[in-house]
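To make this tangible, this section ends with a sequence with its structure tokens:
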Amino acid sequence: MAQARAGRLLAVIGDEDTCTGFLLGGIGEINAKRQSNFFVVKKDTPVSEIEEAFRQFTSRDDVAIVLINQHIGQEIRHVLDAYDQTVPAVLEIPSKEHPYDPTKDSILRRAKGMFSAEDFR
């Protein structure tokens, strides 16, 4: 299993408001290969570009966590469902216009399947 290392990045795939908020919070980075750690999805962004951004972020050694807006994750659900690595971790987050729906979060569904109610007694 891969181990998280100090100094690894947070990557964001999100709408403009989400990416702007995280960038204002200080997460923006560009590595030596001039690759940024965020991808802004607009209404006319092709699904293939979103899929490619996800694949690039999850294959980078300097990324520890990938955050993706849940409504954008719905567009590439087949890619998210197929992703089975622990690092970088992938977390679905809400956006200003789209509230979080736990029933659509495939990672949360997988985590719930790992435990039973008796494990918490």
